[in-house]
User: Fold this.
Amino acid sequence: MRAGARRTGPLRRVLPMLEVRWSRVARAVALGTLALGFSVGLSATAAWLIARASQMPPVLQLSVATVGVRAFGTGRGVLRYLERLASHDVALRGMAALRANLYDALARGPVTRVVALRRGDLLARVGADVDAVGDVVVRALIPAGVAACVGLGSVVLVGAFLPAAGLTLLGCLLLTGVLAPWLASRAAASVERQGAAARAEVTGRSLELLEEGQQLRVGGRLDDRLAALRAADARLTRSTDDGARISGTSAAIDAGAQTLAVLCSLLLGIPAVAAGTLAPVELAVVVLTPLAVFEATSTLPAAAVQLRRSREAARRLVALLPDDDAAVPRPAPRRPADGLLELAAVDAGWDDRTVVAGVDLTLRAGSVVALAGPSGVGKTTLLLTTAGLVPPRAGSVRVGEGGALFVAEDGHVFGTTVLENLRVARPDVTEDDARGALAAVGLDDWLGALPGGLDAMLGPDGADVSGGERRRLLVARALLSPARVLLVDEPAEHLDAATADALVATLAGHAQATGRAVVVASHRLTPLAVADEVLLLGVAPGAGAGARTAGVVARGPHAHLLRHDAGYAWAAAQEHAETSPSPG
Amino acid sequence: MRPLDPRLLRRARAARRYVALTAALGVAAAGIVVVQAFAIAHTLGPAVTAGSAGTPLALADVAPWLGVLVAALAVRAAVAWAQERWAQKAAADVVAELREQVVAHTVALGPRPAVTEGDEGAEGAAATATLATRGLDDLAPYLVRYLPQLLLTAILTPALVLVVLGLDWVSAVICVVTLPLVPLFMWLVGVMTAGASERRLRTIERLGAQVLDLLAGLPTLRAFGREIGPGARVRALGDASRRATMGTLRIAFLSGMVLELLTTLSVAIVAVGVGLRLVEGMIALVPAIAVLVLAPEVYLPLRRVGAEFHASTDGLAAADRAFAVLERPLPTTGTLTAPSLPGATLVLDGVGVRAGDRGLTAPAGLTTRVPLGTGSPGGGRVVALRGPSGAGKTTTALVLLGLLRPDEGRVLVEPAGTGGTAVVDLADVDPATWWPQVTWVPQRPALTPGSLRDVVTDGRAVGDDALAAAARTTGLDEVVAGLPQGWATPVGLGGTGLSVGQRQRVALTAALLDGGPGDGAPPPVVLLDEPTAHLDARGEQVVLDTVRAWRDAGRTVFVVAHRASLLALADQVVDVRSRAVGPAEAVAS
Assistant:
């Protein structure tokens, strides 16, 4: 699947998404070249000035050089300032474009990638990865361009006086500009490769100690585990040793090359003066100019490491992107022969495995169906498949006019007003619609207490929304959507038993009153009495120990299952036992 | 923020060694810079002078100084190698030392570290986890890049100024006058622009958060079929963010410009001054070249310190967070040896624990007497802790474990056969003598990675028979029989690879083996927290069987129980209740 990406290189695949205008890059490189060029110019002019001055000419003959030295000294700071602004402008434009293009690609691509975004810290990683890819401009491309221009310019300058010295300077620049960065990049790769296992162990051990530390103390295992952490950290340190030696070599080359260039210039220049091919004043320029040139290449080892890091970040971003050729003509939905939605022998699952197999279900106007079963059995996967967000692995899903809406357990509350959050469902939701939906889920008191009411901000910058309020807000938003089928995942999570049961009853009543259909997934069984039919998902008892594919093990109205399915009855009874002791 | 936090040197041995090494290498670097400048001056100077006079030098005339230059090259490369190589190692060592201290100290703080300002419980725990796993890595660039330049500024810069003073006092005066201007002007620029950049930074953060908010909401938008519209908004937010950032950078880079301007201009002034004095014969060519070569080197460390400034702030902030954890005071622990528990009685006397963030005392006013089992077969007891969620059942368990001190009331131990005369307050007992008498199975049992057998035995010497017997009681034998690799099945950190029910069975088996043969006497008290949550009928039966096995062996089993079946098994039921903290009380606390 990713073969194409591997062939072209992830960075090259992502770079077009930065929409870099190369004229801006050229401007930044030109400014950077001028800034460093001034530095080299200062060094060369000062060398000429001093050597010429030692010959005690009339002071007027030095005036151009003195003015030049002062001008070079003043201009450099200003040019460098302009260059930094220009290069950061390029990078920031790139990051903004990349974010927008990434959003577009994810919005249009296959939905499995988007669903994957919800897992773990992937989202935070995407933000950091975009920045890392953008950094490639400021920290790698532009410094490399500047180093190439300044390096070549200096070689031409020195070579104009003494061609052989120009060549030795070129050789030394290649040492620091190519060999040292290559070594630095190799060192980083070595640390990453050899340290990966040790680093994972250090992280795991640290987290274990932090999360389970109290248990380890009571169990008398704390000292063992601290020793294990120390040993893992020692392995991590050792694994960085190879890398440290290589980057040491890179630093040594960087430090030695400058002196080497000066030494070569002396060795070539002194005989050239004796041979009369080089003026004594020019010798000073040839020997002292290299002292300023190596500043240009000194940033390149870090640039090479940045390039590596950006490439890794780009690789992770590419993995999120849809394949070019798979770009999504969404299949025209097939209409059910009968009712609002029809599943026929559907196998639901992910790329690599089937989670729930062989589900048949027909929803008509006013249907209320429940999916029950233990956590992890595959209720959410089946709902995603029913909603058309994940393609079925077998069988067919037919959805009628209006479509089916999946209401996720962890649906997103946007950092905007209550009203705008509800308008995600439908742009033309009026304030009265909004109040009605909130009242239906029992949030009218909550809304009344919010400063600003429907205009109150939610999310990180605004009012806190508790777990239970959030669940109900998501259900209210679903009620406002034009979809004829609502697929609601665990509406009772984070709610106390009475509120949870009332919310499911609200959904059922709403479906019956408006001619919509509702499917509710719930691991809590008590509220399912309002459903027309309960599908109990589970792994059939006869299946082997390794079998993980679930199916419908029993179905029927709640009361029927209570009578005929012992496991169902037992689980429902436990819920009553749990709630029976009255709160103190 | 101080550029070198003395606490870093105090807390991390590796940091002390590293600073000493870097200082020594800094002295060597200073020496090399001077030697190299002299070598260049003493070869180039005579060559130019002799060439101008029409009697050019041969290489042989300056061979000794060329030899010095070769040696300088070698030593300079060696110093750079050593600095880089040992800096990386020292950084890894310092991070490891601090990580271990942070982790050990956090564990020693107990299950609910006293909440300090701006550091709420769960958030604080997540922040500590981030600090221990990734945050401390920010110290590496600080130690590898910034600190050496800082020390060089302290060592090399004054040394070079002294050398220049010996060569040409006018140039030395220029250096002495301009050097302090650099930090002064950078400080001035910083002060003048601080307010503006902070305001803009907040704007940038808000814009960035909005983009991430839309990305995070993408699954929701797609579910509603509304995903296409916000693309334009992401682009607009990105543009706004860029404009705001550029505004900040225009100001932030000013200090960099001042730095570059002052340093290069100073070098230019030195060069022009030396040139003009050369014409008048006030200085010879050799010292003039030496001054010209040395002048940029005087300012170089200062420029690099400026360039690595971000590494310094990030690194010092990471160190600061680590020290904030390390400086939190540890709870006081008792020193008395715990009495032997079989046959003793636990007395809970008005025990209450404040749940700081929820405005609750949970448990509140818990008073009861719990006689413990005798330790001999048939003399065991099962004590259930009952109450609605949030009432403080788990907290009560933590108090009984001696991990948490009650905010109100106390837990007393009446040793067996003393008739209540030799009562000991649990708060005065050394936990190290209390814990060997307790086996604890928390809600989420910790499982070490390894083979299934290693996980269950956790380093204890357990015979196959004992293992098989324990596995039979908990039903783990069925699980093992279903696994292709049996007891050798690898289990990841935290029990990955096992289902919730399987994990529960593993934890119960391990608890059954705690204090088994080869590990001293079995602890007389067992504490099970929510053992039946998320279990099916078979899983619950396993828990009941295990609890019965412990009681039959004469041990005391405390169970945090929700379900009727466990409550039915209990010899004693303790009702745990919470109480809301009144507004007045909340303010007072």
User: Anything to note?
Assistant: Chain A has two domains: 3-326, 341-547+575-579. The CA atoms of residues 419 and 431 of chain A lie 7 Å apart. Chain A touches chain B through 150 residues (CB under 8 Å).
